[in-house]
TrEMBL record:
Name of the protein in its database record: Uncharacterized protein
SUPFAM superfamilies in the record: F-box domain, WD40 repeat-like
Source organism (scientific name): Tagetes erecta
Lineage: Eukaryota, Viridiplantae, Streptophyta, Embryophyta, Tracheophyta
Database matches in PANTHER family: RIBOSOME BIOGENESIS PROTEIN WDR12, WD40 REPEAT PROTEIN 12, 37
Keywords per UniProt: Repeat, WD repeat
Transmembrane region(s): none
UniProt WD repeat ranges: 224-246, 259-301
Length: 503
């Protein structure tokens, strides 16, 4: 012990302020080295860096970073990249926004001939789902882009399909392999009183319990990490909860709860954003009920935690956070689900409404009427009475029954209109219009849009056509396009109004 010198031991040496000052910080690195490190980051990572501090915000404006993103997404655009005199970040965001708004005339386009009329259309990352009566046709997008008309037919339903939804495979009992972590299952409801779950081209589960046609499915799953369920509504005026974890082809024990209280068929359902256990249902008589799926009781009415009603025929309904947006008759309104009080209502002055959608992050709503749609800024409409529209989206023939909104665009169309129109979501300015089909005297029967892609079905008395368009590699601007100056927002792929892909 006498020969040891604790004072010279490095393990117990005190840390001085000079030691702190000599520590290398990430901000001490030169910009070129930091830019090189960003090669391992995604666009979302870069977006997060931009809001972390002023130093990183300056860093991520580097043209080297945005040249890489340009080459990754649009490798054929190298001449365009080299011709840019302004910042490549702004050029990237401008092109991204323009593609989202379909401001081009040369998308990749494929037309597939089908039966004359379709009822439901769903567009996912890899597939197009088209229902016609009791049948579902599933088209591979890769094969569509190759011009191939092959499809998988799902034909187990015995009556018209009323609703189609995509839910994560990982939330079901079918999930076995991490290789399928991003896969979805298709869930459909039908007038044959059944609900079916499809995966890999066949029916994996059949859910039965409604005493009549099943009219609607919930837009999202309810529940937490302990177990997810989906909801259905039917002409029997009930709301039913179903587990996706049930096993067996017949879905034994899948029915978890049945909610009673409505007196008319259920027409709309939406899952609350602020509590994952709340589902809102609306019946044909415009009565609205809020149900808490976490409440288990022998009293079949105790799960109802809120009620209200709105005037007029139901048109549409969607939840966002603690608010419920509703369109009925000729008016739109907002209900606070925490108090069940109406916080906003206004007449649209459109007469009968045919369609409705919302963009809550931008406080925008859109309603489809006869010959036109109207864009509303909810922030500017306080109190009751008639409100001033933000923009009129006119030029349509007949009722506007097809309506899609996302943070970039609004898509409108109707069954008497041979075209669908595209509008900028922020301003209501028209950016393009697209023919629904190459058929003479054709009309639009269904529309679905996702990111840079759109699919429409058109028909005349003899034929139907499914038209798929992908704008990702488009370069020729539409004559309607007054070239935008670019997005002033940081990352156009960051938003919370839907599940739209950025590809």
């Amino acid at each position: 012990m006498a020969g040891r010198h604790p004072s010279t031991s490095t393990a117990s040496a005190p840390v001085t302020s000079n030691d702190h000052d000599s520590t290398t910080k990430v901000t001490d690195m030169d910009m070129d080295s930091l830019v090189h490190c960003t090669r391992y980051l995604t666009l979302q990572d870069i977006s997060n860096m931009a809001i972390s501090c002023k130093f990183f915000n300056r860093l991520v404006y580097s043209d080297s970073i945005w040249r890489r993103f340009f080459r990754q997404r649009w490798p054929q655009m190298e001449p365009f990249i080299n011709s840019q005199t302004s910042g490549l970040r702004e050029a990237y965001l401008t092109r991204y926004s323009d593609l989202q708004q379909f401001k081009f005339v040369d998308p990749l386009e494929t037309n597939i001939y089908t039966e004359p009329k379709s009822s439901n259309l769903l567009l996912s990352r890899n597939s197009v789902f088209l229902s016609q009566g009791p049948l579902i046709h599933v088209y591979s997008i890769d094969k569509l882009l190759e011009g191939k008309a092959s499809f998988v037919s799902l034909n187990d339903h015995r009556a018209r399909i009323t609703s189609m939804r995509l839910f994560p495979l990982k939330e079901t009992s079918l999930f076995r392999n991490e290789a399928h972590i991003n896969d979805n299952v298709l869930v459909t409801s039908s007038c044959d009183h059944s609900i079916r779950l499809w995966w890999k081209g066949s029916c994996q589960r059949c859910f039965r319990g409604h005493n009549g046609p099943v009219t609607v499915l919930s837009d999202k799953l309810l529940g937490d990490e302990n177990g997810k369920v989906f909801a259905s509504g039917g002409e029997d005026s009930t709301v039913r909860l179903w587990s996706l974890k049930s096993t067996g082809k017949r879905g034994q024990h899948a029915l978890k709860a049945t909610f009673y209280g409505h007196e008319k068929p259920i027409v709309f359902m939406s899952v609350s954003g602020y509590r994952a256990s709340l589902i809102v249902s609306m019946s044909k008589d415009s009565k609205i009920r809020v149900w808490d799926a976490s409440i288990s009781s022998s009293d079949r009415n105790s799960s109802c935690v809120g009620m209200t009603s709105v005037p007029g025929v139901p048109v549409g309904m969607k939840c966002h956070d603690s608010l419920l947006y509703v369109a009925s008759g000729s008016s739109i309104g907002v209900v606070d689900l925490r108090t069940m009080k109406t916080t906003f209502t206004t007449s649209t002055n459109q007469g009968k409404l045919y369609s409705f959608d919302i963009l809550p992050s931008k406080f925008l709503a859109c309603t489809g009427g006869l010959g036109r749609a109207i864009l509303w800024d909810v922030r500017k409409n306080t109190g009751t009475g008639e409100a001033e529209p933000m923009a009129e989206l006119d030029g349509h023939i007949g009722p506007v029954t097809h309506l899609h909104m996302d943070p970039y665009k609004i898509v409108t169309g109707g069954p008497e209109d041979p075209h669908v129109s595209i509008w900028a979501a922020d301003t209501g300015t028209q950016t393009n219009f697209l023919s629904c089909s190459p058929l003479d005297s054709s009309c639009c029967s269904a529309v679905a849009a996702d990111g840079f892609r759109i699919v429409t079905t058109g028909y005349n008395q003899e034929l139907g056509v499914l038209c798929f368009r992908d704008f990702n590699n488009a370069v020729s601007s539409s004559s309607l396009n007054e070239h935008a100056t670019g997005s002033k927002f940081w990352c156009p792929s960051t938003y919370s109004d839907g599940d739209e892909s950025d590809s």
